[in-house]
Amino acid sequence: SQVVVKKNPNYWEKDSKGNPLPYLEQVTISPIPDATVRFANLQTGDASMGEVDSKDIAAAEKHADLNVVKGVPGASVYSVLHYNFAIAPMDNANLRKAVAWSIDPAVVAKNVYFDLAVPADGAMTTPGSWAFTPVKDRPRYDVAKAKEFLRAGGKPDGFDMEVIAYTSPTINQQTEIYQEMWKKVGINVKVTTQEVSAAVTSFFGPGPQTFPLMSTSWGGTSAEPSTTPTIAWGKDSFYNPAKKPITPELDGLLAKARQTYDEKERKELYQQIDSIVVAEQCVFVPVLYAQPRYVFRKSVKNTEAAYYAGFVRLHHYYLA
After folding, report:
1. Where are the alpha helices (DSSP H) in 35-141?
2. Nearest to 310 by CA among 295, 299, 298, 294
3. Could you tell me which residues come within 8 angstroms of residue 169 by beta carbon, excluding any fewer than 6 positions away?
4. How far apart are CA 49 and CA 163, in angstroms?
5. Where are the domains of the chain?
6. What are phi and psi of 242, to 5 degrees?
7. CA-based angle 215:218:219, to the nearest 5?
8. How far apart are the C-alpha atoms of 45 and 20, rounded to whole Å?
9. Is the pTM of this model over 0.90?
10. How many CA atoms lie within 13 A of 264 on its CB side?
11. 285 - beta bridge partners?
12. Closest Cα to residue 138, out of 273, 306, 240, 42?
């Protein structure tokens, strides 16, 4: 099966020289679930563009007829530490920080994602977008710092904890790596793996909630900074497992940020919000941003200008 999309002759957008977009008369989209077949079609020219598995990127980069385009990090977030700060021992901010500061995202990026992921330096706003700012003092790999937080949290020798993850080869692999890293600082973790819908219910409810931490992923960052804060960081947000305010002032900041139209003020407010959630309280910590790649035949032009945060804009492409 396939989908054919045709040029809209009345489309409004033009390029920098005043030429009407899109350039192409039509594009045929063919679903190819098998990644090996998809890559083979790109190599033979039966497909002009597509996604390939991480393991095939190096071969694609060496192929004489292919062009690998790097997108903006954060099209998806491969690793997130999501805490239920109402359940011990993750009701202690210092122990939450000990967990986050004791893991090395670079090891997971290399061994699980073939370096097609980058350690997160911000929160959940897309890097490069108008509202993005790196979060100062957010968790980074530092074993000495992690041990300081253990002492500050009253657990200098470490503690035991349960972590939930959903069934996924990459999520399970990265969580196992974190488990070994946590063990080195005295945090002994038992990992429970469930099918995704069951894991979501176990962590967020409804029903009994027993897991203080979920090792998970997230659909993606957003150029609009309100997206994740609205659905995850408010006291009544579905993806706030504790169902209570993260701090007394945070919900007020969230409301104010959503209500103002002043871009400068919005950016400053979301900087405060990100700092509270990711650094100060450490209740939602993006660990790894996806570093997306898309593969094109070299006959497809203008790909770099049209690729952003995992989305391809077909109206910018042309063939030559």
Report:
1. 35-44, 57-62, 93-101, 105-111
2. 294
3. none
4. 39
5. 3-71+294-319, 77-290
6. -80, -20
7. 155
8. 27
9. no
10. 0
11. 81
12. 273
**Residue 90: which of 159, 142, 145 has the closest Cα?**
159
CATH class of 77-290: alpha beta
> Which residues make beta-bridge pairs with 296?
49, 67
CATH class of the domain at 3-71+294-319: alpha beta
Q: Print the SS3 string covering 134-183.
A: CCCCCCCCCHHHHHHHHHHCCCCCCEEEEEEEECCHHHHHHHHHHHHHHH
- The strand pairing partners of 49, in sequence order, are 296
14 and 262 Cβ atoms separated by less than 8 Å: no
Residue indicated by tokens 């095939």? 56
What are the structure tokens assigned to 314, written together?
């077909």
Distance from C-alpha of 27 to C-alpha of 24, rounded to nearest angstrom: 7
Rounded-to-integer distance, Cα 13 and Cα 26, Å: 17
Residue type, 6: K
**For residue 12, what are its two tokens?**
């409004």
pLDDT by residue for the chain (320 residues), tens digit each?
Answer: 899 999 999 999 999 999 999 999 999 999 999 999 999 999 999 999 998 888 899 999 999 999 998 878 888 899 999 999 999 999 999 999 999 999 999 999 999 998 889 999 999 998 988 999 999 999 999 999 999 999 999 999 999 999 999 999 999 999 999 999 999 999 999 999 999 999 999 999 999 999 999 999 998 899 899 999 999 999 999 999 999 999 999 999 999 999 999 999 999 999 999 999 999 999 999 999 998 888 999 999 998 755 555 567 788 899 99
Strands 187-194 and 159-166: parallel
Residue 275 CA to residue 138 CA, distance in Å, equals 7
Phi, psi (degrees; rounded to nearest 5) at 179: -55, -45
Q: CA–CA separation, 279 vs 1, rounded Å? A: 48
Beta bridge partner(s), residue 27: 5
The strand pairing partners of 67, in sequence order, are: 296
